Amino acid sequence: DLQVAAREERLVGILNGCSYDQPRIRRPAWKALRVSIVAALEHWMSRSTYLHSSHYLAHKKITTRLTRKPTTLLVSIGRATSQKVSLFLQATSSGQTALEKILDKLSPGELFVMLGSGDAELSSRLTEIAHRYDSFLFLEGFIDGLPDLLYGAGDAFLMPSSFEPCGISQMLALRAGQPCVVHGVGGLRDTIDHGRTGYVFEGTTPVEQADRFVSTVGEVLSIRASDKTTWQALRDAARAERFNWDKAAQHYEQVLYANHDA
Questions:
Q1: Residue among 165, 60, 56, 73 at smallest CA distance from 110
Q2: Is 9 exposed, middle or buried (0-12, 13-18, 19+ CB in 10 A)?
């Protein structure tokens, strides 16, 4: 039915929006973010129903290894579901998962923090990778305030959704000045301007998508490390992007109600 509607030009997608009323987000000091992560972990670990090995491992890493601010902080925030994380765990052409290949690209001092919860099997796989990589911190759960700190502190936001009708996490990352690396599907393709506010990768097969995801993150890390002018332009353009609810409401009105009797 949707394909028929699309062919008849009756299928329309309308983007989400987010609020831009709050003061400009300031990048939090690493100490503040570290304290917040530790507090979240201690909260989760104090509740037996949320006592996971990922929490114990993350607490150990934070308290023993992550005393210094990372030179580059990659961030991903979202539900641990097949839609959101399957490409992280997809095998590349080399046999390693995309996540492992990305972590292999990180230099000492660089860090990738993923915040999310959901499917137990996917969370277990992410936890297992976190056990093997000091550069990867998987926080299994959510707590008020922590996502905002991660949005504010991150240098680049990774969102390789397998499908995404619109998505809002990438909008929140842009609002905080984080260039985004996204899979070229749905609303992600519509909201990230390739080469200006982030980078969009594609592929015809899951393996090809995983390979291009890895290479695109590698490109971003290279720009971040060696081209400060381009990187600052990316951050400025990301922060200046606007997807407000007024625009979304106007689109709804135009598409759904224009030229129709009340």
A1: 73
A2: exposed
Q: Are the beta carbons of 144 and 43 closer than 8 angstroms? A: no
Distance of alpha carbon 261 from alpha carbon 216, whole angstroms: 48
Among 162, 154, 153, smallest CA distance to 188 is for: 162
Closest CA to 199 of 178, 214, 185, 220: 220
Classify 75 as helix, strand or coil: strand
What whole-number distance in Å separates Cα of residue 128 and Cα of residue 189? 31
86 DSSP assignment = T
Q: Can you give the length of the chain in residues? A: 262
Kind plus residue range of the DSSP H or E element containing 158: strand 156-159
- What letter would DSSP give residue 139? E
Nearest to 156 by CA among 40, 238, 212: 238
Output the CA torsion sign for 66, 38, 32, 229.
positive
Enter the tokens of residue 229.
């002018």
Which pTM was predicted? 0.91
Q: 53-109: per-residue pLDDT in tens?
A: 777 778 788 877 788 889 999 999 999 999 999 999 999 999 999 999 999 999 999
Q: Taking the alpha carbons of 204, 224, 75, 147 in that order, is the dihedral positive or negative? A: negative
